[in-house]
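Protocol step 4 of 6: structure prediction from sequence.
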Amino acid sequence: MNQFTPKSVALFTLSSLTMAMLMQACGGSDNAIAQTVAPPDPIQGFWQSSVTLTDCASGTTIGGFRGLTTFHASGTATADNNTPAATKGVAMGAWTRNANGTYVLNMRFWRYAADGTPAGQQRLTRTLTLAADGQTLTSTITTQALDSADNVVQSACGRETGAKLS
């Protein structure tokens, strides 16, 4: 003789509801709902650039380098450049799009002395403007070298031009 207890009825009901929800979540309905996918932000992708650094006060050129930056869909970015790898790490940071269409990218990377010992961090801010075609950019850069206690030990400014590679 089969006997249904309140516990067995509750378990059956719970498992039936769970199965119905899983079927619905996995497409178990003929009611298709169109979803729009926002197009990617034009800054997203892989960029190559040339940077000229200057003394912020005098405008005297300090140096320059070529860089690579990937702007991720998540609002994060990674960057590296062609200065000696022994003196710095890969830059990491986050970007935002301003209401006026410009972008701000804040990044940091580790700095190392010539002997390989830690020398602090580099903090930089890039304010980027994309051309109308979304394939080239210009930016202004401010950067500060920080010691191991995050004290500013050197500052510089810069200009950047870049092109989207993908």
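Step 5 (inspection) to follow. The first helix runs from residue 6 to 25.
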